[in-house]
Amino acid sequence: MNVEYDISFVIPVLNGSKTIQNCLNSILSQTSEMNYEVIVVDNGSTDETLDIVKNVDVNLIVEQKRGRSFARNCGVNKAKGKWIAFIDCDVELDNQWLSNLAPIIKDDLYNVIQGKIIPKSLQINSFSQFREKLLAFQTHGSFCSLNDIRFVAPQCNTAACVVKRSAIIEVGQFDTSLDTHEDYDLGWRLWRNGHKFYVANKVVSYVYWDRGQYFSYISRYFYMGKGYHRLVKKWQLTPPKTLFKWRMYLYKNIKFALVDLLLQLAFFFGFKSSGHNPKHHQPTLKKASYLAPFSYLIGTNHYEFHPCVRVIKTEKKFIFKNIKSHKQLEFDVQTANSPHEEFSNIIMSQLAALKSNNFIINTYKQ
């Protein structure tokens, strides 16, 4: 493939007439020296989406096979950029999104770049406040999904994520057999293949929810749970033993805590409705490096896979352990809560003891 652009924006859309115009406007208004193309992949819209997109100067492709993975793969195959920026149709980019991204791309040190995705609503109400609290909790307050470790690796969120095209092709693109969580799967495969991830805190986007409020959000979690069984089966994962958690401490609001519990129940019943029994599956990724979210724990934006080193978080300690040599470094929570730069320096000064030359903690910040 001849590379003609620095970035190809790929936007899959299905009946996105309420948000697609603002999404495209936010992309086309970006100012940067980087050249880019915009590809919209329609996945069978029956509303006014096609009419809206046809009036904008972008490349429109129709993918007949239904599913986000089919749509994104179609966009990747047509793209002529070195990097693919996956943007969902309900996402708007900050005005400085591309200009803040450009220096990281030019460094060419990373293959996956994830910025902040902040929830937004057209109206400020109790539902918008709940959604913001929930997403903040899931990402440790950062609104960057790479800070949300799922089983064995950071979670990519392709609602707004930038990945090197060659890396996507290398791992086989999106798995079209997955109805949901296809971005988890892609991120895990990229991680296992040694691709480096970067948390770009200044690369900010906003995601809108335009499909109702509490009931529609609960229905979404049921659908996600229903599709989740395929991911569990593929990776042979064992879901957490604790299915439901009463998180009153998180919301300090009994209504929000009840809604949160309903979301967990919806996900569980969706999962169970698939007929899958997780008891027969054990994790097969024990050799993988289970890395805690470094940008949260030690103030670094850099993630790198290493098959020998694991990071274990306990109630009182953070433990860096080489599973081959059995050497380990331990840091108490009080040390970990010291200023990020100080903690990073402590770790970097002692990592040599692990004799893991490929295990890098890079304190470069944007």
Task: Detail the topology: elements first, then pairings.
Layout (H helix, E strand, L loop, with lengths): L4 E9 L6 H9 L7 E7 L6 H6 L4 E4 L5 H11 L2 E7 L3 E3 L3 H11 L4 E9 L5 H13 L10 E2 L2 E2 L5 E5 H7 L10 H11 L4 E12 L5 H22 L12 H4 L2 H20 L20 H4 L4 E2 L5 E5 L3 E6 L5 E5 H4 L3 H11 L16
Parallel strand pairs: 1-2, 1-4, 2-3, 6-10
Antiparallel strand pairs: 4-9, 5-10, 6-9, 7-8, 10-11, 12-13, 13-14
Helix pairs in contact: 8-10
Task: Explain this structure.
- With 366 residues, the chain is α/β, with parallel strands linked by helices.
- The protein has three domains: 5-123 and 130-208, Spore Coat Polysaccharide Biosynthesis Protein SpsA, Chain A (Alpha-Beta Complex); 214-280, no CATH class; 294-354, no CATH class.
- It has 13 helices and 14 strands.
- Strands 1, 2, 3, 4, 5, 6, 9, 10 and 11 form a nine-stranded mixed β-sheet that branches. Strands 12-13-14 form a three-stranded antiparallel β-sheet.
- Strand 12 (309-313) and strand 13 (317-322) form a beta hairpin.
- It starts with a strand and ends in a 16-residue tail after the last helix.
- Residues 278-307, 336-344 and 351-366 have low confidence and may be disordered.
